[in-house]
Amino acid sequence: MSDLASQVAAQFEHLSRISYETVRRWLKQAKIVYRRAKGWIISPDVRYELKKHQRDRLLRIARQASDGVAVWLDESWFVRWPYWYRTWAEQGKSLTVLQRWSEKVDTTALFAALDDESQQSLLYWAQGQPNSDEMIVFLEKLTTHYTAQGKRFIALFWDKASWHTSKKTRDWIRAYNQKAKQAGLPRLLVSYHPTRSPWLMPLESVFCWVKHQVLGGRVFQTIPELQQAVALAFQQRVAQAKKRHDKAVATFLAAAAQKSTSVM
User: Fold this and answer.
1) In angstroms, what is the C-alpha Rg of the chain?
2) Maximum distance among all alpha carbons in the chain?
3) Residue 11: its pLDDT value, please?
4) Does the CA dihedral 167-62-125-183 come out positive or negative?
5) Contact of 130 with 77, CB cutoff 8 Å
6) How far apart are CA 154 and CA 70, in angstroms?
7) Coil, strand, or helix at residue 153?
8) Based on CB atoms within 10 Å of each CB, which residue in 43, 110, 167, 173 is the most buried?
């Protein structure tokens, strides 16, 4: 503020100095504040708008169909050590997070499928790193889950992770859909998000919330103990998220064009 006052005073010959308090009042009157810029991510995908439009179209169809379901699928890694977190604390009392001294700590990968309507999550813990084999195991669990509910199709939204786009996964989806057509099972309609667009995936914020608000400040002795805490956190968020979700969906459908289109 003092540097700014000096620069302003230098513009006028009859002024020797201007107090920083005067400059502060000028800025306040002009509704100008000093703040730090935020990072902003954009997708480098040249077909971003087209892919997002296709995604929104399929999402609208799935939300309107009583025999269909929209599912968001993503994965995340978890460690036994605590994460950075924010919470209430006494004034003058600092909060500390125990940092691991080695990167070689116990980790586990979580496959999660979020039901767009019910906000319920189907979870699967991978035995090691996510890969195409683990992905296929989870897709089998997912299709079995919605077959029991009598769904006709599953609109699956995910990113372009290697185990999503691998030939092995794509071949399994193709073979499953051929089988589903003959046996009357729910079809898998896959929609890939544009390149580097994590804001289109609701599970990204869920993973972040679980890590920093639920697991923050906690050290787990075993991986099963960590997995149990994560599963409980997913269950607890359903009731809170459902009300907000229903409001957002109502707004989404009201703004979208009402078209009668077959998903098949």
Assistant:
1) 25
2) 90
3) 86
4) negative
5) no
6) 6
7) strand
8) 110
Q: What is the C-alpha separation between 61 and 51, in angstroms, rounded?
A: 16
The DSSP output letter for 63 is: H
Tokens of 165: 């786009």
Q: Report which of 71, 73, 253 is spatially closest to residue 153, judged by C-alpha positions.
A: 71
- In angstroms, the CA 86 to CA 95 distance is 9
Predicted confidence (pLDDT) at residue 53 exceeds the cutoff of 90: yes
In 3D, which of 74, 229, 64, 70 has the Cα closest to residue 160?
Answer: 74
Contact yes or no for 186/143 (Cβ under 8 A): yes
Please tell me the pTM assigned to this model: 0.80
Helix (H/G/I), strand (E/B), else coil: 107: strand
Residues 108, 227: Cα–Cα separation, whole Å: 8
Alpha helices in 38-166 (DSSP H): 48-64, 132-148, 162-165
| Domain assignments of the chain as residue spans, ordered by start | 1-35, 48-255
Q: To which CATH superfamily is domain 48-255 assigned? A: Ribonuclease H-like superfamily/Ribonuclease H (3.30.420.10)
Do the Cβ atoms of 194 and 52 come closer than 8 Å? yes
**Tokens in use for 212?**
């920093």
Give the residue carrying structure tokens 């002009």. Answer: 30
Cα separation, 204 vs 188, in Å, equals: 22
pLDDT, averaged across the chain? 89
